[in-house]
Protein backbone atom coordinates (compact mmCIF):
# COMPACT_ATOMS: atom_id res chain seq x y z
CA UNK A 1 0.00 0.00 0.00
CA UNK A 2 1.19 3.51 -0.81
CA UNK A 3 -0.05 6.82 0.59
CA UNK A 4 1.74 9.56 -1.33
CA UNK A 5 1.51 13.30 -0.75
CA UNK A 6 2.42 15.79 -3.48
CA UNK A 7 2.89 19.24 -1.97
CA UNK A 8 5.23 22.15 -1.48
CA UNK A 9 5.73 25.86 -1.06
CA UNK A 10 5.83 26.87 -4.74
CA UNK A 11 2.99 26.78 -7.24
CA UNK A 12 3.27 25.71 -10.87
CA UNK A 13 5.89 23.02 -10.33
CA UNK A 14 3.85 19.98 -11.34
CA UNK A 15 2.20 18.72 -8.16
CA UNK A 16 -1.16 18.08 -9.80
CA UNK A 17 0.50 16.62 -12.90
CA UNK A 18 2.46 14.24 -10.70
CA UNK A 19 -0.59 13.34 -8.64
CA UNK A 20 -2.92 12.50 -11.52
CA UNK A 21 -0.29 10.56 -13.43
CA UNK A 22 0.59 8.40 -10.44
CA UNK A 23 -3.09 7.82 -9.64
CA UNK A 24 -4.06 6.84 -13.19
CA UNK A 25 -1.01 4.62 -13.65
CA UNK A 26 -1.78 2.81 -10.39
CA UNK A 27 -5.31 2.25 -11.68
CA UNK A 28 -3.94 0.93 -14.98
CA UNK A 29 -1.97 -1.79 -13.18
CA UNK A 30 -5.11 -2.88 -11.34
CA UNK A 31 -4.81 -1.00 -8.06
CA UNK A 32 -7.86 0.43 -6.27
CA UNK A 33 -6.88 4.10 -6.05
CA UNK A 34 -8.21 7.20 -4.33
CA UNK A 35 -7.05 10.65 -5.43
CA UNK A 36 -7.50 13.24 -2.68
CA UNK A 37 -7.52 16.87 -3.85
CA UNK A 38 -6.79 19.30 -1.01
CA UNK A 39 -5.95 22.24 -3.26
CA UNK A 40 -8.59 24.98 -3.45
CA UNK A 41 -7.92 25.27 -7.21
CA UNK A 42 -9.26 21.75 -7.65
CA UNK A 43 -6.95 20.90 -10.55
CA UNK A 44 -6.83 17.17 -9.84
CA UNK A 45 -10.58 17.01 -9.26
CA UNK A 46 -11.20 18.82 -12.57
CA UNK A 47 -8.89 16.38 -14.35
CA UNK A 48 -10.85 13.41 -12.99
CA UNK A 49 -14.18 15.07 -13.85
CA UNK A 50 -13.06 15.58 -17.45
CA UNK A 51 -11.78 12.02 -17.63
CA UNK A 52 -15.05 10.67 -16.29
CA UNK A 53 -17.06 12.80 -18.74
CA UNK A 54 -15.06 11.26 -21.59
CA UNK A 55 -15.82 7.78 -20.27
CA UNK A 56 -12.13 6.93 -19.99
CA UNK A 57 -11.39 3.79 -17.99
CA UNK A 58 -9.99 3.20 -15.52
CA UNK A 59 -10.66 6.42 -13.64
CA UNK A 60 -9.59 6.67 -9.99
CA UNK A 61 -12.09 7.79 -7.37
CA UNK A 62 -11.53 11.42 -6.45
CA UNK A 63 -12.38 13.29 -3.26
CA UNK A 64 -11.95 16.95 -2.39
CA UNK A 65 -11.51 18.21 1.14
CA UNK A 66 -10.14 21.28 2.89
CA UNK A 67 -9.40 22.25 6.48
CA UNK A 68 -7.40 20.89 9.35
CA UNK A 69 -8.92 17.40 9.41
CA UNK A 70 -7.35 16.16 6.16
CA UNK A 71 -5.35 13.63 8.16
CA UNK A 72 -8.61 11.97 9.24
CA UNK A 73 -9.72 11.62 5.62
CA UNK A 74 -6.35 10.08 4.75
CA UNK A 75 -6.80 7.52 7.53
CA UNK A 76 -10.29 6.66 6.30
CA UNK A 77 -9.30 6.33 2.64
CA UNK A 78 -6.24 4.23 3.46
CA UNK A 79 -8.54 1.60 4.99
CA UNK A 80 -10.65 1.33 1.81
CA UNK A 81 -8.13 1.71 -1.02
CA UNK A 82 -4.90 0.05 -2.10
CA UNK A 83 -3.27 3.43 -2.71
CA UNK A 84 -4.05 7.04 -1.82
CA UNK A 85 -2.53 9.94 -3.79
CA UNK A 86 -2.89 13.40 -2.22
CA UNK A 87 -2.59 16.69 -4.10
CA UNK A 88 -2.03 19.37 -1.46
CA UNK A 89 -1.25 22.23 -3.83
CA UNK A 90 1.56 24.75 -3.96
CA UNK A 91 1.52 26.65 -0.70
CA UNK A 92 2.13 26.25 3.02
CA UNK A 93 -1.46 25.53 4.00
CA UNK A 94 -3.32 23.89 6.85
CA UNK A 95 -4.18 21.09 4.39
CA UNK A 96 -0.51 20.48 3.63
CA UNK A 97 0.46 20.45 7.30
CA UNK A 98 -2.43 18.17 8.22
CA UNK A 99 -1.43 15.75 5.46
CA UNK A 100 2.20 15.69 6.54
CA UNK A 101 1.38 14.44 10.03
CA UNK A 102 -0.83 11.57 8.84
CA UNK A 103 0.85 8.40 10.14
CA UNK A 104 -0.36 6.45 7.08
CA UNK A 105 1.82 8.58 4.78
CA UNK A 106 4.52 6.52 3.07
CA UNK A 107 6.12 9.29 1.00
CA UNK A 108 5.89 13.02 0.42
CA UNK A 109 6.99 14.27 -3.00
CA UNK A 110 7.79 17.98 -3.28
CA UNK A 111 8.19 18.94 -6.96
CA UNK A 112 10.38 21.95 -7.77
CA UNK A 113 11.88 23.46 -10.87
CA UNK A 114 15.62 23.92 -11.10
CA UNK A 115 15.43 27.68 -10.53
CA UNK A 116 16.56 29.87 -7.67
CA UNK A 117 13.01 30.96 -6.84
CA UNK A 118 11.87 27.34 -6.47
CA UNK A 119 14.95 26.06 -4.68
CA UNK A 120 14.84 28.83 -2.08
CA UNK A 121 11.43 27.60 -0.94
CA UNK A 122 13.02 24.27 0.03
CA UNK A 123 14.78 25.92 2.97
CA UNK A 124 11.44 26.60 4.63
CA UNK A 125 10.10 23.22 3.51
CA UNK A 126 13.10 21.54 5.13
CA UNK A 127 12.17 23.24 8.41
CA UNK A 128 8.51 22.25 8.01
CA UNK A 129 9.48 18.62 7.47
CA UNK A 130 11.60 18.72 10.63
CA UNK A 131 8.67 20.13 12.61
CA UNK A 132 6.23 17.58 11.16
CA UNK A 133 8.57 14.73 12.04
CA UNK A 134 7.98 15.54 15.71
CA UNK A 135 4.38 14.37 15.18
CA UNK A 136 5.09 11.91 12.38
CA UNK A 137 8.59 10.45 12.87
CA UNK A 138 8.25 8.23 9.80
CA UNK A 139 7.68 11.17 7.43
CA UNK A 140 9.92 10.86 4.36
CA UNK A 141 10.03 13.83 1.99
CA UNK A 142 11.77 13.73 -1.39
CA UNK A 143 12.28 16.58 -3.81
CA UNK A 144 11.30 15.84 -7.41
CA UNK A 145 13.01 18.07 -9.95
CA UNK A 146 10.50 18.89 -12.69
CA UNK A 147 10.49 20.75 -16.00
CA UNK A 148 14.22 20.10 -16.29
CA UNK A 149 15.87 21.30 -19.47
CA UNK A 150 16.75 18.64 -22.04
CA UNK A 151 19.55 20.79 -23.47
CA UNK A 152 22.91 19.15 -22.77
CA UNK A 153 24.67 22.47 -22.15
CA UNK A 154 22.24 23.68 -19.50
CA UNK A 155 23.47 22.53 -16.09
CA UNK A 156 20.68 23.89 -13.88
CA UNK A 157 19.54 20.38 -12.96
CA UNK A 158 23.01 19.49 -11.68
CA UNK A 159 23.04 22.67 -9.60
CA UNK A 160 19.59 21.86 -8.21
CA UNK A 161 20.70 18.36 -7.25
CA UNK A 162 23.70 19.79 -5.40
CA UNK A 163 21.41 22.23 -3.56
CA UNK A 164 18.98 19.52 -2.46
CA UNK A 165 21.81 17.26 -1.30
CA UNK A 166 22.75 19.93 1.26
CA UNK A 167 19.34 19.88 2.96
CA UNK A 168 19.11 18.12 6.31
CA UNK A 169 15.59 16.70 6.38
CA UNK A 170 14.67 16.30 2.72
CA UNK A 171 16.02 13.70 0.31
CA UNK A 172 15.96 13.72 -3.49
CA UNK A 173 14.07 11.56 -5.95
CA UNK A 174 16.35 9.66 -8.30
CA UNK A 175 13.79 10.35 -11.04
CA UNK A 176 13.78 13.67 -12.90
CA UNK A 177 10.87 15.01 -14.95
CA UNK A 178 11.90 17.05 -18.00
CA UNK A 179 10.11 19.83 -19.86
CA UNK A 180 8.16 17.93 -22.52
CA UNK A 181 5.04 18.91 -24.45
CA UNK A 182 3.64 15.40 -23.95
CA UNK A 183 2.69 16.31 -20.37
CA UNK A 184 0.67 19.30 -21.58
CA UNK A 185 -1.08 17.36 -24.34
CA UNK A 186 -1.86 14.51 -21.95
CA UNK A 187 -3.33 16.88 -19.36
CA UNK A 188 -5.45 18.60 -22.00
CA UNK A 189 -6.90 15.21 -22.95
CA UNK A 190 -7.40 14.14 -19.31
CA UNK A 191 -4.94 11.30 -19.94
CA UNK A 192 -1.91 10.06 -18.09
CA UNK A 193 1.19 10.66 -20.17
CA UNK A 194 1.59 6.90 -20.75
CA UNK A 195 -1.90 6.87 -22.30
CA UNK A 196 -1.20 9.91 -24.45
CA UNK A 197 2.09 8.55 -25.79
CA UNK A 198 0.50 5.15 -26.41
CA UNK A 199 -2.20 6.78 -28.56
CA UNK A 200 0.39 9.00 -30.24
CA UNK A 201 2.51 5.96 -31.10
CA UNK A 202 -0.48 3.98 -32.40
CA UNK A 203 -1.33 6.77 -34.84
CA UNK A 204 2.19 6.94 -36.30
CA UNK A 205 3.10 5.57 -39.73
CA UNK A 206 5.27 2.42 -39.48
CA UNK A 207 8.49 4.14 -40.54
CA UNK A 208 8.27 6.57 -37.59
CA UNK A 209 7.52 3.89 -35.02
CA UNK A 210 10.96 2.34 -35.40
CA UNK A 211 12.70 5.44 -34.05
CA UNK A 212 10.11 6.54 -31.49
CA UNK A 213 11.01 6.82 -27.80
CA UNK A 214 8.22 7.70 -25.32
CA UNK A 215 10.53 9.83 -23.19
CA UNK A 216 7.90 11.36 -20.91
CA UNK A 217 6.43 7.93 -20.19
CA UNK A 218 9.87 6.55 -19.36
CA UNK A 219 10.37 9.35 -16.84
CA UNK A 220 6.97 8.83 -15.24
CA UNK A 221 7.45 5.06 -15.06
CA UNK A 222 10.71 5.65 -13.23
CA UNK A 223 8.95 7.89 -10.71
CA UNK A 224 6.06 5.43 -10.42
CA UNK A 225 8.41 2.60 -9.42
CA UNK A 226 10.33 4.86 -7.04
CA UNK A 227 7.17 6.14 -5.34
CA UNK A 228 4.95 3.06 -5.26
CA UNK A 229 7.50 0.28 -5.52
CA UNK A 230 5.59 -1.20 -8.47
CA UNK A 231 6.87 -1.83 -11.99
CA UNK A 232 4.84 -0.35 -14.86
CA UNK A 233 5.55 -2.45 -17.96
CA UNK A 234 5.79 0.26 -20.59
CA UNK A 235 6.89 -2.07 -23.38
CA UNK A 236 3.79 -4.18 -22.86
CA UNK A 237 1.46 -1.18 -22.43
CA UNK A 238 2.53 0.68 -25.57
CA UNK A 239 3.56 -2.44 -27.52
CA UNK A 240 6.69 -0.79 -28.86
CA UNK A 241 8.52 -2.35 -31.78
CA UNK A 242 11.83 -1.57 -30.09
CA UNK A 243 12.46 -2.48 -26.48
CA UNK A 244 12.80 0.42 -24.03
CA UNK A 245 16.05 -1.10 -22.83
CA UNK A 246 17.46 -0.72 -26.33
CA UNK A 247 16.44 2.86 -26.96
CA UNK A 248 17.01 4.57 -23.61
TrEMBL record:
Signal peptide: none annotated. CDD domains: ParAB_family (cd02042). It holds the Pfam family MipZ. It comes from the Bacteria. InterPro entries: DNA_Partitioning_ATPase, MipZ, P-loop_NTPase. Gene3D superfamilies: P-loop containing nucleotide triphosphate hydrolases (3.40.50.300). This is CobQ/CobB/MinD/ParA nucleotide binding domain-containing protein. It comes from Piscirickettsia litoralis. The lineage of its organism: Bacteria, Pseudomonadati, Pseudomonadota, Gammaproteobacteria, Thiotrichales.
